[in-house]
Write a structure and sequence with these properties.
Distance between the termini: 32 Å
Helix content: over 70%
CATH topology: Ferritin
Number of domains: 1
Strand content: under 5%
Largest sheet: none
CATH superfamily: Ferritin, core subunit, four-helix bundle
Order of helices and strands: HHHHHH
Radius of gyration: 15 Å
Structural class: mainly alpha
Number of helices: 6
Number of strands: 0
Length: 171
């Protein structure tokens, strides 16, 4: 499920480290899940508007689509389970996202595609690590765990697609 790929993409390294330092529970996982999807929607939305490369535009549009669908799945499940998302006290991922967006906005057009794709590769690698090492092991609710495991494999597809496109860019 490509759509599902991003759903779990939410944990990124910043929150993974924070989560290991504090007890992470399902309401926190839901909040992380939602924020991480939102962050990639924002980065990819900017890329879809700024790029002049049709392949980068197509990929960015796909990422926006996938992350939006997965974020909605997470929100629907939270509502069904009566879970109120509770963000972690410390949010390294928020800081990383703010810095990444500032960098993307300041990047000249000639360099934009490379900077965007490098960010996507890094983000997806960190998220995959966080899913495997933090999110899944900490999840208590069976339905939430099912959602995570359903979408996790597709996250690799996003990583591969971003890396493949990055490799094709002129150096």
């Amino acid at each position: 499920m490509r759509v599902a790929s991003i759903a779990v993409g939410m944990l990124a390294l910043g929150w993974s480290i924070t989560a290991r330092a504090q007890k992470i529970d399902d309401p926190t996982i839901v909040a992380i899940f939602d924020a991480a999807n939102t962050f990639d929607i924002e980065a990819s939305g900017l890329a879809a508007k700024r790029t002049k490369n049709p392949d980068v535009k197509k990929l960015a549009d796909q990422f926006v689509h996938d992350h939006s669908a997965v974020r909605q799945q997470g929100r629907d499940l939270a509502k069904k389970l009566h879970v109120t998302p509770t963000p972690p006290k410390e949010c390294a991922l928020c800081t990383e996202h703010t810095a990444a967006m500032a960098k993307l906005k300041a990047t000249p057009d000639a360099e934009f595609d490379r900077v965007y794709l490098e960010n996507e590769v890094k983000y997806h690698r960190e998220v995959i690590d966080a899913i495997n090492n933090t999110l899944l092991p900490a999840t208590q609710n069976a339905e939430l765990k099912t959602l995570e495991t359903t979408v996790a494999p597709a996250f690799n597809a996003h990583l591969v697609a971003a890396q493949n496109l990055l490799d094709k860019l002129p150096k």
